[in-house]
UniProtKB/TrEMBL annotation:
Residues 58-90 form the ChsH2 rubredoxin-like zinc ribbon domain. It comes from Halobellus clavatus. This is DUF35 domain-containing protein. Gene3D superfamilies: 6.10.30.10. Pfam families: OB_ChsH2_C (PF01796), zf-ChsH2 (PF12172). Residues 92-154 form the ChsH2 C-terminal OB-fold domain. Residues 1-22 are annotated as: Disordered.
Length: 176
């Protein structure tokens, strides 16, 4: 167990973001006060999730999701069974790396576990055409954003208390 978080301790570096070879890396603590099941970022290996291909694709720089080969429904997040027709004949398809803001807000309190130290931060709904998804918006301030602003995919590595690499997607304002 680690000591409790002291908000007055300026040396605390939990969830610090650093750059490593051009890709941002989110650092998580070496030890976690809470049970492993409460980690915001899921385990991403074939042994731990049936959507490991989604994370493998992210590691390769591609945002993907599943499409049902029987009824044609596109799903996000990726599924192992189609919620429309219950088929398990799903294939991974590429999603755009660019979209536009449908909605956004600043999280100032009540952040998910593991993100309490990141507040305030901007969260948004990103319209990618056929898919609309929620995402953390990096390098963004609420007052600088507008509905319809262009955003682009940003993949971050997740450091933390597990023995394999993890990644996750975020978006950031697109430079115009």
């Amino acid at each position: 167990m680690t000591d409790h978080y002291d908000p007055t301790d300026s040396t605390d570096t939990r969830n610090h973001i650093r750059t490593d070879g051009g890709r941002d890396v989110v650092e998580l603590p070496d030890q976690v006060e809470l049970p492993r099941l409460l980690d915001f970022y899921e385990l991403q290996t074939e042994e731990t999730t049936e959507i490991a291909e989604f994370y493998d694709n992210l590691r390769e720089g591609q945002l993907t999701t599943t499409e049902c080969q029987d009824c044609g429904e596109l799903h996000f997040p990726p599924r192992i069974v189609c919620p429309e027709c219950q088929s398990d004949d799903l294939a991974y398809v590429d999603l755009p790396h660019e979209g536009e803001l449908f909605a956004f807000s600043t999280v100032r309190a009540g952040a998910p576990m593991g993100m309490e130290d990141d507040v305030p931060f901007v969260i948004g709904i990103v319209d990618l055409g056929e898919i609309t998804l929620s995402a953390h918006l990096d390098d963004a301030e609420y007052d600088d954003l507008s509905i319809g602003d262009p955003v682009e995919l940003k993949i971050v590595e997740i450091d933390g208390p597990v023995d394999h690499e993890r990644v996750f997607y975020r978006f950031e304002p697109k430079e115009t």
